[in-house]
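Me: Here is a favour to ask of a fellow structure person. Could you put it straight underneath, so I can go through it closely?

Assistant:
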Amino acid sequence: MLRKTRKLHWGLGRIIWSISLLMLGAASALADSVYIDMERVDSGHVGTPLGAIWAVDSWFLTLVTLNFKLSDVPDGSYQVRLHEMPNCDNPGDVYNPDGDAIGQRMGDLLPAMHTENGTLTGIHGIKPPVHTADAHKLTVIEMRGHSLLLQSNNDNAVVACGVVREGEWEEPR
């Protein structure tokens, strides 16, 4: 009887261990990370590099987190938007797979960021436009193949753009 109980515990332990490994592997496979190299696109400054934004899936929030490290940004207030096309010359419309109203579109990422001595820095979690249990949450995988624009809140002019590259996980730089 004791031998059967030990075999049962050992068998159950192996099953639990196997399921844990599968779940860990599945969670890792769903996470993604990419650097978005941002360049100026406004008149007289086209192609001037500003730095990068690291987009990473936050495992504890299940949201995309953007880590800004931009410098030489003109003073002002900016919004960050994800656009449909991976092209800074023609980015298309704001990413809006659900057909939501302005301000609630999936691509309306951050409504107001302010420069400090020409820099935009900091880590920002991207919340879904609608806060419900079944809300569509943006992932890095979904961001890939689109462009990220930095637009002035003063006149809506696009100041900088970067393409969210297709590909694999990128290690921290």
Confidence is low (pLDDT under 50) at residues 8-29. Strands lie at 33-40, 49-58, 63-70, 77-83, 108-114, 120-125, 146-152, 158-164. The longest helix spans residues 2-30. The longest strand covers residues 49-58.
